[in-house]
Design a protein that fits this description.
Elements: H1 2-12, E1 17-19, H2 21-30, H3 33-37, H4 42-61, E2 62-64, H5 75-100, E3 102-104, E4 110-112, H6 113-121, H7 124-143, H8 145-156, H9 161-167, E5 170-172, E6 179-181
Antiparallel strand pairs: 1-2, 3-4, 5-6
Helix pairs in contact: 1-2, 1-4, 2-4, 7-8
Length: about 190
């Protein structure tokens, strides 16, 4: 019966109206003698109890809530709360991924994400990326955006020339983009 009167009380307190706990409790327990009289059909007794409780709350136990004056928090406080919540959310996801995610290599070996990140940060690719970013930052401070943009395009190597020279498929003849293609017999 306590679930019935709690449910009726919760539903009665939605919106601008408030329902009395006393009347929902009284209505729910008014039907309780029927449990001993008609114990074979307990489902009907529960329905009757809920109906009696809600009818009594609607008839006697409802009143209007007085509107409360709400004051909104300052923008700074709302931003701080938002940033803290985003930080906690990000920390939970990062922790979950770092400790539970893994990669499966071609050999079938499982490597955890945190170990893969540690290996990446020790790799030559990361050190080259770091040095390129540092070099671009210093170029930006010295020469401005337009020269840095040109240097960034050369650094990103959109045509793959630098990679081809490193691998050995192209030999650079001079600095004016004259290349000789190396043919590899298979």
């Amino acid at each position: 019966m306590w679930l019935i009167h709690t449910g009726v009380h919760l539903v009665a307190n939605i919106g601008n109206e408030k329902g009395s706990l006393k009347f929902s409790l009284l209505g729910a327990y008014m039907i309780s003698p029927l449990i001993w009289i008609n114990s074979a059909n307990l489902g009907n007794v529960i329905v009757q109890s809920a109906f009696c409780s809600s009818a009594l709350v609607q008839w006697k136990g409802k009143s209007w809530r007085m509107p409360m004056e709400t004051r909104r928090a300052s923008l700074a406080r709302r931003l701080v709360v938002f940033v803290v919540c985003c930080g906690v959310y990000s920390a939970v996801w990062t922790n979950m991924l770092a400790h539970n995610a893994y990669f499966t290599t071609a050999d079938g070996e499982k490597v955890k994400l945190k170990e893969a990140c540690r290996n990446f940060l020790n790799s030559p690719a990361w050190t080259e990326t770091k040095s390129s970013a540092y070099r671009l930052w210093e170029r930006y401070q010295k020469d401005g955006f337009s020269e840095t943009w040109k240097d960034l395009v050369v650094t990103l190597d959109p045509e793959g020339e630098t990679w081809a020279c490193k691998v050995g498929y192209l030999f650079r003849l001079n600095h004016v983009h004259a290349y000789s293609i190396l043919h590899v017999d298979r």
